[in-house]
Amino acid sequence: MPLHLYLIRRILLMIPLVFGISLMAFIVANTVPADPTAANLGERAAADPEIVAAFQRKWGLDQPIHIQYLTYLKNLLHGDLGTSIRSHRPITEELARYLPATVELATAGILVSLVAGVIFGVISAVWRNRPIDFVVRILSLIGVSAPVFWLALIGQLVLYRNLGLVPGPGRLDIVLTAPPTVTGLYVIDSILAGQWHILGSALAHLILPALVLGAFSMGLIARITRSSMLEVLSLDYITTARSKGLREHLVIIRHALRNALMPVVTVIGLAYGNLLSGAVLTETIFAWGGIGLYAYNAARTLDFPAIMGVSMLIAIVFITINLIVDMLYCWLDPRIRVD
Amino acid sequence: MRRTAIVLLAIVLGLVFAGSVIAQEEKVLIVGLSEDYHSLDPSRAYEPGGSLIHHSVYQTLVTFPPDSVSEILPGLAESWEISGDGLVYTFALREEAAFSTGDPLTAEDVVFSFDRMKNLKDNPAFLADTIKSVEATGDLTVVMTLKQPDPSILAKLVFDAFSILNASEVRAHGGTAAEDAAETDTAEGWLMDNSAGTGPYTVESYEPTVRTVLVRNPNYWGATPYFDRIIIRNLPESATQKLALEAGDLHIAMDVTPDQVSSLKANPGIEVFSTQSDTLIFLLCNKDPETGGPVTNPLVQLAIRYAIDYEGFRFLSGEGANTPAAMVPLGFAGVLESSEGLSRDLDRARGLLAGAGYPDGFKVDLRYPDFNYIGTSFGVVAQKVQADLAEVGITVKLVPEEFQTSLAAYRAGEQGFSLWLWNPDYYDTLDYVEFLPEGVVGNRANWTDENADQEILDLRDAVKIETDPEKRNKLFREIQIYEQHHGPFVPLFQPGVHFAYSANLKGFYYNGQWRVDLTQLSF
Question: pTM for the complete prediction?
Answer without folding.
Answer: 0.84
